[in-house]
Amino acid sequence: MLAKLEQVLPSAVRSRVRATQAAIVAPGPVHSDDAADPETFATLALACRDSEVIRFDYAAADGAQTARRVESVALVPIGRRWYLLAWDSARDDWRTFRLDRITRPTRTHLIVERRAVPSADAASYVAERFATSAVPRLSATVRIDAPHDEVEGYLGAYTNGLTPDGPEHTRWRISDDRVEILMGALTWLIWPFTVIEGAELQRFVGEFGERLRSDPPAS
């Protein structure tokens, strides 16, 4: 898993993150668009590893800037973004922060007792928060030609919407705002599958398959 994870980390920070893998919770497939600043990533990873209080400036989705002081817990990839899971004592609650919106992270060297995450692990908790925080524009149902237990074991924490479909098949309900992201999720599957609901994804999969089968242009 660490070898796969290193492939998608910013190159400038790979060597430093090898020493801090305990801070990163990524039990399933990982994507990254390298939006997070490498130095920010490394600073937060070290703080998570040591269960350290950290200060930083944070830009909300509407552009509002706030100064934060939180107990670092874990770095979690969701989709193509990295998030910091932390306990915000000022708000007396768990918070997730997008790494590409964090600036000026400053370590305080104040070590605190690590808090127990209210879920199976940090990745599961963050995924659950995202599942209930917004309604994606697109949804689709995929029928996978493999038993539920086998698919569940392979996908790890990314099993929201996964249900058995008889002894030999599994249904996977997936959602996102972009059809390309849904297609990206399907490329991780190692079994044959059929998109049985979701017209936009069905068209995209068909067009993608045609491009793969087409002859290369003559040189």
Automatic annotation (TrEMBL):
PANTHER family: PROTEIN PAFB, PTHR34580. Residues 39-105 form the WYL domain. This is WYL domain-containing protein. Pfam families: WYL (PF13280).
